Amino acid sequence: MPKYIFAYHGGTAPESPEEQQQVMAAWMSWIGSHGDSFVDPGAPVGDSRTVTAGGVEDHGGPSPLSGYGFVTADTIEAAIEIAKGCPILEDGGTVEVASVHEM
Q1: Which parts of 1-103 fold into alpha helices (H)?
Q2: Which of 8, 68, 72, 84 has a CA between 20 and 30 Å from the CA of residue 92?
């Protein structure tokens, strides 16, 4: 079955331990509701740099990556339907969906 990467952009970090627990529960519920579709639920990422031919840009550039995950789905449209339920969307973030080409 085809594999897709979810690249999470934006969102905000929880400000308290209680909020962190609520956010984590929302993510785990979303991931769990899709059974075996998540082949790697991924993780949030930290500070990043963007490397270009012209140099290095701090903080990941104009749309820094905030996390990732991998899913399997029959089509990119099916993967997009999964992404539409992502908790980051409620926090002002976005999910970029791209097909992964096996090498």
Answers
A1: 17-32, 76-83
A2: 72
